[in-house]
Amino acid sequence: MNDTVSPRALTPDSFESDQEIRWCPGCGDYAIIKSVRKALADIGTDPDQVVFVSGIGCASRFPYYMATYGFHTIHGRAPAIATGVKLANPALDVWVVGGDGDMLSIGGNHTLHAIRRNIDLNILLFNNEIYGLTKGQYSPTSRVGTRSPSTPMGSVDYPVSALVFALGAGAHFIARTIDTLQKHVPDVLKRAHAHKGASFVEIIQNCIVYNDGVFDDFTAKDVAADRQLHLEHGKPLRFGKTKEKGLRFDPKSMKLEVVTLGENGVSEADLVVHDETNRTLGTMLAAMEPPDFPAALGVIYCSPAESYDHAVKAQIAAARSKAPAADLNALLRRGHTWTVDRPQA
Amino acid sequence: MNDTVSPRALTPDSFESDQEIRWCPGCGDYAIIKSVRKALADIGTDPDQVVFVSGIGCASRFPYYMATYGFHTIHGRAPAIATGVKLANPALDVWVVGGDGDMLSIGGNHTLHAIRRNIDLNILLFNNEIYGLTKGQYSPTSRVGTRSPSTPMGSVDYPVSALVFALGAGAHFIARTIDTLQKHVPDVLKRAHAHKGASFVEIIQNCIVYNDGVFDDFTAKDVAADRQLHLEHGKPLRFGKTKEKGLRFDPKSMKLEVVTLGENGVSEADLVVHDETNRTLGTMLAAMEPPDFPAALGVIYCSPAESYDHAVKAQIAAARSKAPAADLNALLRRGHTWTVDRPQA
Amino acid sequence: MAMDGSAARKQEPAERQELDSVVVRFAGDSGDGVQLTGSRFTETVALAGNDLETFPDFPAEIRAPIGTTYGVSAFQINFGSRVIMTSGDAPDVLVAFNPAALKTNVGDLKQGGLVILDVGTFNDKNFEKAGYKGNPLEDGSLTRHRIFPIDVSKHTLEAVKDSGVNKRDGLRAKNFWALGLVDWMYDRDVAPTIKWIESKFSKEPEIAKANIAALKAGHAFGETAEMPDGVRGFTLRRAELAPGLYRTITGTESLAYGLIVGAKLAGLDLFFSSYPITPASAVLHALAGLKAFGVTTFQAEDEIAAIGAAIGAAYAGALGITSSSGPGIALKTEALGLAITTELPLIVLDTQRAGPSTGMPTKTEQSDLNLAVYGRNGDAPLIVLSARSPGDAFDVAIEAVRLATQFMTPVIVLSDTYISNAAEPWLVPDVGSYEPFPVGFRTNPEGFHPFVRDEKLARPWVKPGTPGLAHRVGGLEKNYNSGNISYDPINHQRMTDARKAKIDGVANAIPEQAVEQGETTGRLAVVGWGSTYGPIYRAVSNVRRDGKAVSHIHLRHIWPMPRNLGELLKGFDQILVPEMNTGQLVGMLRNQYLVPAEGLNKVMGRPFTISEIEAAIRSKLD
Amino acid sequence: MAMDGSAARKQEPAERQELDSVVVRFAGDSGDGVQLTGSRFTETVALAGNDLETFPDFPAEIRAPIGTTYGVSAFQINFGSRVIMTSGDAPDVLVAFNPAALKTNVGDLKQGGLVILDVGTFNDKNFEKAGYKGNPLEDGSLTRHRIFPIDVSKHTLEAVKDSGVNKRDGLRAKNFWALGLVDWMYDRDVAPTIKWIESKFSKEPEIAKANIAALKAGHAFGETAEMPDGVRGFTLRRAELAPGLYRTITGTESLAYGLIVGAKLAGLDLFFSSYPITPASAVLHALAGLKAFGVTTFQAEDEIAAIGAAIGAAYAGALGITSSSGPGIALKTEALGLAITTELPLIVLDTQRAGPSTGMPTKTEQSDLNLAVYGRNGDAPLIVLSARSPGDAFDVAIEAVRLATQFMTPVIVLSDTYISNAAEPWLVPDVGSYEPFPVGFRTNPEGFHPFVRDEKLARPWVKPGTPGLAHRVGGLEKNYNSGNISYDPINHQRMTDARKAKIDGVANAIPEQAVEQGETTGRLAVVGWGSTYGPIYRAVSNVRRDGKAVSHIHLRHIWPMPRNLGELLKGFDQILVPEMNTGQLVGMLRNQYLVPAEGLNKVMGRPFTISEIEAAIRSKLD
Ligand SMILES: Cc1ncc(C[n+]2csc(CCOP(=O)(O)OP(=O)(O)O)c2C)c(N)n1
Ligand SMILES: Cc1ncc(C[n+]2csc(CCOP(=O)(O)OP(=O)(O)O)c2C)c(N)n1
Ligand code: SF4
Ligand code: SF4
Ligand SMILES: [Mg+2]
Ligand SMILES: [Mg+2]
Predict the structure, then answer these.
(1) Does residue B166's CB lie within 6 angstroms of at least one atom of ligand 4?
(2) Domains of chain B by residue range
(3) Closest ligand to residue B97's CA
(4) ipTM above 0.85, yes or no
(5) Interface subset of C 10-69, CB within 8 angstroms of B
(6) What is the CATH architecture assignment of B12-235+274-310?
(7) Span B291-323, pLDDT tens digits
(8) Model confidence over D13-54: pLDDT tens digits?
């Protein structure tokens, strides 16, 4: 089980463990793990300094396949357990992996609080809009009407948007990418890693067995250009095969709208310019859904603030520097004490 | 323990149970319960048709003091338990009461999912930014730097905003009010009750023992006018002692800004007009914090959609009407059966 | 022996040999249609009047790569002319569709058992995937068994060539070819399977045609081809089953139906809330499809919300039920305490799987008994029942509803992976033959207090909305009568005692413990609970046939224990308690009755075999 | 008897009566400074060389309206010249600051006990709030006791009139007046209290002056005023305590310090995560203030996150600790299974409170034992320890750290509300006198596998970041050696057996069970655990003084049990197990050793009295 890798010549293979992968053939998770390994190789962290923490689900098998430290925990609790890992040893590079059920259903609260605290974790949510491992029940991200073993007549509850939720939780970094985007995923992950604090990345993932093609409306080759908006900070929001479309903001309705450049006198100057630090824009971008809008991809919001682990350790350091000679015997003797003499013989 | 009340002549007293209230003298909860009783009397629901479900905490003692059906459950689980009550009997008028710890710390996930599903509950969060019942530890809504028994050097994690969180969860109705506003609270509650689906109301509540005055920056009499924005659908966003101030929207930064009417040529026409159905506006209003901005009060967002309980029951009705003669003996005999004859003697 | 069965020549017609019972296992890749073959064969066997029990063994992975050992799916059936109690210790016959299936299953086969092997899948790639160094037919590793290699793939393709399907679809019919052959071996009629194929594939007539052709060809192959040594036709007589209408039923179906019938008998609406988990989800799926019976199912955000909603529904006057497996049951422990202290009826189904923690989710075990009986903060007694077989789960579910509603208490029902997936013939009962036990909701405000108890110590159940009965309940200690919050020391003792006495008193509302087999006193009692029923029963009867004094006692009611159980156990010199855990019931029996009960423990994720228990019994009696 | 003590005249100087021990209770409104009075008196008594034990009893409400019965706060102290084991069965003296305090406490007083009553608070409003129909001094309800009514309020105001405080602040000094009087009664020195007041109120000199004046006045009142019958000066000799430096310590402090010292001895950083809950939060508060010792405390979003973070910290190589009370411990059960199966060290503190469910959060109980030992899905063994007294908790905490880290396992430490709030004198140990037990983190990649066990069956602990040792752990079943996921049946049995054997083997690493008092065989053993230590010890010694053969055995290590316990118990004809639950340890002893142990059960939210246990012992021996 031990994996010795020289940190000098890191390649994606340096992050490949000796365990045979057991996802279904064709599962989107294969592409994701490839990209994660590539991102880590590019980042260049020593695999021995990296910890992957996951919950339970298909996605959560992830740590077994990484030649890093790994903890496959229990359903929904990975953000909490990872919080302990990071607080106990902030020098570690801690990644959290889980599915939509793991992180937004049973684990929603831990996800919320990890994000709110802004602890320096890289949180990767593999969203396939279904419970893969338990054979296909609908999840909190499944669209209304999803037929599944537990909803034979179709689901009736409204899905939660992972990224809108994350912003509601006070996220300082959110991004979205798609399993099959072999260049985009590593790029997004590198940004997530570079962000100190909780980075929350939604990775759209196709479950070929229980929810095949559910994202085709924006991931399929033929529609991708028209339904994907690749964000770049400081660049206007353009998309479409020839980048002929864009997003304009209507201040009256406070809504984004899709426009075509050149039509009705629309020019690039009319388009919104992406500003990662703008929360209102981020919220609108995160909420966009095909087919009426393109899905926003890339770093949607990034606005750094002190990380929780940093602040916690700073307090401890402050307390220590105030009482540098903290001594256990002295501690036990704090407050009032008295002495009982040897009994008078 | 039984309370018999004629539904005809409802007064606030009709909702007063025989149990002595045990909140600390001066606690904001006293004012709130008065307003809740008034709202219910005004609504005119038969107390026997009303159920109050709560978690654990000072706020959660609420049901004991109401002459309705009530369930003081366990910490954090009230939204889940109330979901069962409502699904089992959608005719009941179900109210959920809890504190900021109850609903946003341990119970955050149930709050999230009750809101997401849009089940027809009236959820009242009493936010005192502290754990009252357990003697004053900081809560997820406590401001950075809060000194408490568990954070003697001050808290370092960022608070979550109850209402921004609720919007992130997909809320269809959010509102905010303040314990001491004796007219405003019942008005808001009546709106919440009228909304079919999950209504989420944050009630700012002063904990006189462990967090006294923490909201003074916008609730104190002398600053109230300048720091409270009372919303009315279709009305411009104005506040201040003489309503001399207002909120303008800057489409470039996509941010709200405080302006003074008459200054720099600002007129009422420049102000944002409140639109309860606008999610972007709602998100910005919910996030506003004194002292830079006034706290938004009243119905911030209201955009009805089919409630979960309604949709669930509709499916059952549809299934029943398709198979009106659903018979248990037939069910047991579904699929392949065969007969074993009496043994040949 | 020819590698290719097609080379065999016509067999002389021979007398079929008569068998008492036989165990057949089909094994192949997840995509080979093994489960389908198994259930078709089950139906055929059932219609022929045999008793049977089946057990499917799914791979842990959702969809493993083709040809791998961990992608192997298996289905075992034990059938016979006598009463069948288990799905069989070891197969007599293994039908293996590829090398991986051979590899993972051949070890379980009886010494000298028959392996029917599709050598059409024998190639180096598949050998490697299965972890074989070379062709296992040639490395001498299979000498303990009789091997019958046939190129099933080739035969199938030949058989389907006129049905108009392409090669891929044609090959997919090979499970039917094998089924045909097995049908022939055991003298089973192919007609019911043909009928099933026709209706199932009515919209794909070519597929139907191909499958039927393959089935018939397999059967004909048996009739006409020369068989190797020992492969011959067998026959089994009808079992002597009670007369009536039968179906096969799994534990999952049985529980779902039992709950619906229980709700009906109680006069309640059924509210079922759960969070998916293997293997418990199956009950959620079953009930979700039964909305026409007024069932409300709710997939909650987690197990705590699931039990929470069920408690809320119970408070609102419905039959609140929640279900899960080990890890999810663990999560429900806090909320269970609330249901206990508010004295609301609630049913908690635990389909036990191998633990601890996530453990082996697809494997069976009985290790949640301690959790069920003891796993709560405070003194928090409740009722624990257990199902012994798929069919028994139906009656246990009804009993759970009866006790929960009559005593106003949570009831935990223990089942396990084995019971939930196994199937057996079931004499379908008439719902009208069950005595109803309608809930009498309190409606009279006169003298009402929510915690005033009846003679069973049960408190009144009130539907919110009932005029004049508005009241509050909660998790804090309550005054013995008024139900108001009370911190009074004497009152707490009184309430604690009352909660305990109520559950202890359930012993008066349940049958005395019966002895399944054997005398009521003697040298040895074998005491079991849950799905060990089959192997214990058969092991005890095997030993008894040799004239030895051993009795079988099997608990349905685990907590409280039947009122005569202590006396009964004291009548035996030795007590042996087989359990699929490290010794949980055995501890309770020792604690309750100070009897020197000993454990026989197997924690392998699979049921006891009859012979394991038989050996233990014999060693006790020697 | 005069209603107003001021009317009394100077008393003739009399010999002080010598006492062995005495129990005093102060009771008043939450705002009356009762807890402060108690702890000042405690210090005075301790400095005078008596042994003592104290117990504060807080109201359940945060801040109840003044004068109500549910707002009464009380503080009891038992002190004497002999070794003090409990905070006392029944007070000899009650100091009651208002009618509500009288009402709620007088019933506990010894027959003939003395009530010092502040009649300055006697008025109709306060009578009504206390639930009295009229003046209790006039309705004949207090005849069982000797009543000493004094207008403490008036005396206090007189005493403070020159100190410059307003009336409100002046009145608040009345607790010091009462303390002065009690100091006089028991011949205690007021000097330490004066010193304390001076330092405490150094920034409010008037308040200090007033308090000191009141204290002195109360003392002088005793010296000078004529006392009613039986109110006289007493004296108590120094107790024979082991020589050395003492302090008073509560169970909360003791646990917190023990954990810090344990971490130090193990060479680990301490990571403590918890979610607030009464009464467990106190440990979180204590540790949160000790950051200078490198302690990291984390207030998690709930109990599951709290244990999760502690497990994560353990994985990362720190000493992970979590704590809670009943409902929160119940929530941790699923995650505990993960720590067990990944074999990580973890400490779980359970400060037990009255259950089930929310129960009575401020009251004591011992009803989580079953949960601790049995409350997990699957076969999931761990270590359970219990603390018998405030001071003992220190050593138990260290023992927990030692066992958790040496055996790579979770350890549950059971304490309770009583222990956590009670205080006793504590001979402060020298940290240097404890044998260190440094953790040897694995660093050598040679032959490393995460689940290869040492002779104690413990697996290696590796800090992430260690070069060459990257590995994965998880909740699924693991191969016995490599730790890779395994569904192999034989392996699961082997791992299950190993997990059990490891915990069973802890019995070899702990001391044999000692007998606290009495012979190692005999007619009756009284077996206890946890905070029943004091009353059992004293009850047994009382009965033994009469020459009866009874022994006291007290368990610190509950799971596994000490290796000689079975033999020891079998040497007694009868075994009596007093527990503050409906019978949990008693069941384990019966199960483990088939001994006819019987329970003595009290579930009232308060400790056993010595006399209750004594009576039960005598009835066994009669
Ligand atoms: C406490 C608990 N509850 C439920 C389960 C069963 N379970 C395992 S994975 C899973 C959800 C899987 O869905 P998701 O998290 O979206 O991951 P995916 O398999 O789709 O990658 C569930 C419900 C469990 N293992 N533990
Ligand atoms: C499972 C569980 N965990 C913890 C507690 C302890 N507890 C009771 S109330 C509370 C929080 C109180 O704060 P909040 O919800 O904000 O309500 P408030 O008292 O401020 O109204 C906590 C932690 C509990 N009762 N149960
Ligand atoms: S079930 Fe779906 S998510 Fe899981 S491994 Fe298979 S394809 Fe991937
Ligand atoms: S502690 Fe605070 S919130 Fe609780 S009752 Fe007292 S004042 Fe109100
Ligand atoms: Mg998923
Ligand atoms: Mg609060």
Answers:
(1) no
(2) 12-235+274-310, 236-273
(3) 2
(4) yes
(5) 43, 46-47, 49
(6) 3-Layer(aba) Sandwich (3.40)
(7) 999 999 999 999 999 999 999 999 999 999 998
(8) 567 888 999 999 999 998 889 999 999 999 999 988 899 999
